[in-house]
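Input (structure):
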C-alpha cells in the first residue's frame, strides 16, 4: 500500500489539480487541510529540509497577512519565518505532497508526477483546460 499525504486547500485550483493527479494514479491520499490542521513546527522544518527549500521559498504572499506582518523584510531569519507560518498557516504555500519518493511543493500541480509511486492511468486535463497527461498516462511537456 502506498501512502500519499497532501497538505491541501480545497479552494485552490492548483491544490485541486494536484489531488486529481494523485487520484488519476489510482491512489487515495490522506488529505490534510493545512489551514485547519497545519503540520507541527518539527514536521514543517522536516519537510522544508526534504524539499531542499528555505522557509522564504515556502511563504505564500497572495491572500495572506504576508505584507501586514512585514515578511518581505530580508533581515528576518528562517526561524522567524517558520514562526509566522506556525502562527498563520495560510502563509504556507500549497499543495505539499509527501510520498515514499519525496516531498514536493507542487506548483505547478504536475510536479507531483515526479514523486508519485504509481504511474498515471489515463489522460488528465487541468481545470484551466491544459492537458498534462496523455491517454497512455505519459506526461505532456509544454513547448
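Output (sequence):
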Amino acid at each position: 500500500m502506498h501512502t500519499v499525504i497532501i497538505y491541501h486547500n480545497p479552494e485552490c485550483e492548483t491544490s485541486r489539480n494536484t489531488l486529481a493527479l494523485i487520484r488519476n494514479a489510482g491512489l487515495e491520499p490522506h488529505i490534510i487541510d493545512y489551514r485547519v490542521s497545519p503540520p507541527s513546527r518539527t514536521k514543517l522544518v522536516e519537510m522544508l529540509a526534504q524539499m531542499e527549500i528555505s522557509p522564504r521559498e515556502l511563504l505564500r504572499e497572495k491572500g495572506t497577512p504576508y505584507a501586514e506582518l512585514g515578511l518581505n523584510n530580508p533581515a528576518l531569519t528562517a526561524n522567524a519565518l517558520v514562526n509566522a507560518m506556525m502562527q498563520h498557516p495560510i502563509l504556507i504555500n500549497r499543495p505539499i505532497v509527501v510520498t515514499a519518493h519525496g516531498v514536493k511543493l507542487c506548483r505547478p500541480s504536475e510536479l507531483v508526477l515526479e514523486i508519485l509511486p504509481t504511474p498515471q492511468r489515463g489522460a488528465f486535463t487541468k481545470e484551466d483546460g491544459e492537458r498534462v497527461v496523455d491517454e497512455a498516462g505519459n506526461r505532456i511537456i509544454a513547448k
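Notes: The longest strand covers residues 5-8. Strands lie at 5-8, 30-33, 96-99, 102-105, 124-125, 131-133.
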